[in-house]
Structure formats: C-alpha cells, structure tokens
C-alpha cells in the first residue's frame, strides 16, 4: 500500500451569573485590600521570578515538518527512526509501521506474513533491522526494512503473573536490547538471543535509586549507559551497562529547565541528553551531568517565550545531526542540530 505526499457563549442564566459576578467583585476588592496592606502576598511578577525561569534556548533550527504522511492519516504516532534515506514511523493508533521516503515522495505501510501489531509504542534500529515494542502483545517484534518479520521476543511476565507492557526499546552496542515495561515498572536488559540479562525496578510504582513510576522511552549511549524516561517521576534515570543507578536528569516543574511530563529521550555523540516533554510542548537539552542547556521547539528559536512548533512531542531520535521529533498531533518535525566538535 502506498500513497503520495502532498466569541464565547454565556453559559449561565442572568440571575446566577449576576450573583457570581457580585461575589467575584467582592473577592477582587478583598485581594486588592490585602495586597495594599501586605504587598508580600502578591504573586511574584515575571521580572522578580526570572531567577527561577530559564530563558535559555538551544541553537537548533527547524529543518522540515510533515503533519501527515500523505493522502492517508496517522493516528497518535509514537516514534520514528532512520535507516539510510528512509524514515520508519510507529503509527500507534493504526497498529502499523510506516516507511517514508521523503526524496521519492512516497509512504508505504509495512506488513509481511505473520505481522500483527497491537499498539506499537516505540521503535528502534541497529541500522539494519527494526525493533518494535508491541505493547499490548507484550513482545518485541523484529523486522527487516521491507517489513518482513524476522522474529519475535516474548517478554517474561512480572512477579504478579500479569503480562508485560513494553513501551520503550533501544539497541545496545555490541548486541542486545533494553526494554521498558510500564506494567511492572521495570527495565529489562536482553541479550542478542532475547534472554533477560538483568532487570531493574521493584515491580511496583517506586522512585529513588531503585524504582520507576511508568518507565517509558529508553536510549543507550556509545559507552553502554542507559537513559530511561521515568514518566510519572518527571525525570530521566541514567543507568550503567550493568543496571547500576548513576544519576537522574531533571526534576519536576512546569517551566523551562524542569520536566512536567517527559516522553522521549535521545543522546548525541557528546552525550548531551535531549528530552521531549508532552506538557511543555518542547524538547529540553541537558549536558551529561544534568546541567540545563536550553530548549528546542519554539517558532522563534531565539525566544523561549514564543509559541511552540510542537503540540504533544513523544518519541525522539538523532541521526547525522538531525533531531527527529514524533509529535502525536503535529506529525514529524525535524531540527538541525549545531555542529559538535
């Protein structure tokens, strides 16, 4: 299958509305009087709170955007990776993988014999194959770039006997995978044959140095360190190749430099960490030690206060200096990253 690219209403009756306006007016007078007597009770102004709100931007410019794959539609896409000139997208809501060829202006739905996807939530590649977190099936599906099914890795059930729910997958240098299991709040390291090497997580919602609260996207750097989006703890956890806790990146907040609802994670060749945030509608960048470097995704790349080019960014990946953001509502958005030395 292939295809081409191509005034407010009054909600209350008059009497109740008048009463509400009267109460609101009295409340406003009270607040004004208290503010006159006790100025310290006023909220901090933007200027006086500037020390708490970062205005740093990361020097990345938008290269291109693809709101839809063509004549068709994708539904809540979750992630995308690149092999050569082709981009492969986990089209979660449509239970399929799309292959996009931007230069040839074509999109193809992958689907070989025996391939059945149930909410594919993440996609990764080793440059030759695709690894798909088949969430509701509790397994990892391995495909070649044409969409032919090579094999399936069935993940083990948790301590309660409930099936796993993989929503993140990454390839480990030298072979093997890292998989996040949101159902059991754990991260699994698999060898090249799919056997579990180690597991981190208590099996229930947790935090600190040993637990997760809905672990989601994962990625691995060239040294084998593992980065886990710990969604509901609003952080990224960094693990060693053996699963030892190293540090956390980010902390809960609702301004630039903090994390509100982290979704995706990627690491560049200098080990700077890129984190997409669904509530902040941006990608935030941190250095390897967790220092905040700036924000990506504003329509004016030089102004952190300008409107966002993103709506609900989810999975992200970096290939050849291009940050590819999969936005569940805005589609694919690519940013050129600055040269690194």
Notes on the structure:
This protein has one helix at residues 14-37; strands at 2-4, 61-66, 79-83, 86-91, 96-101, 106-110, 120-125, 130-134, 139-143, 149-154, 166-171, 177-181, 186-190, 196-200, 215-220, 226-230, 235-239, 245-249, 262-267, 273-277, 282-286, 292-296, 313-319, 322-327, 331-336. The protein is mainly beta and 341 residues long. It has one domain: Neuraminidase, CATH 2.120.10.
Please describe the topology of this protein.
Layout: E1 2-4, H1 14-37, E2 61-66, E3 79-83, E4 86-91, E5 96-101, E6 106-110, E7 120-125, E8 130-134, E9 139-143, E10 149-154, E11 166-171, E12 177-181, E13 186-190, E14 196-200, E15 215-220, E16 226-230, E17 235-239, E18 245-249, E19 262-267, E20 273-277, E21 282-286, E22 292-296, E23 313-319, E24 322-327, E25 331-336
Antiparallel strand pairs: 1-6, 2-25, 3-4, 4-5, 5-6, 7-8, 8-9, 9-10, 11-12, 12-13, 13-14, 15-16, 16-17, 17-18, 19-20, 20-21, 21-22, 23-24, 24-25
Give a short summary of the structure.
This protein has 341 residues and is mainly beta.
Features:
25 strands; 341 residues; mainly beta; 5-stranded antiparallel beta sheet
Q: List the total number of helices.
A: 1
SS elements, strand count = 25
Order of strands, main sheet, comes to 1-6-5-4-3
The average pLDDT is 85
Reported CATH architecture: 6 Propeller
CATH class: Mainly Beta
Strand fraction: 35-45%
Structural class: mainly beta
- Uncertain spans, ≥5 residues at pLDDT below 50? 1-52
Q: What is the N-to-C succession of helices and strands? A: EHEEEEEEEEEEEEEEEEEEEEEEEE
The Rg value, from CA coordinates, equals 23 Å
By CATH, the superfamily comes out as TolB, C-terminal domain
How far apart, in Å, are the first and last alpha carbons?
A: 43 Å
- Reported by name, the CATH topology is Neuraminidase
Helix proportion: under 10%
Question: What overall geometry do the principal axes of the alpha carbons give?
Answer: globular
**Biggest sheet, open or closed, and with what strands and sense?**
5 strands, antiparallel
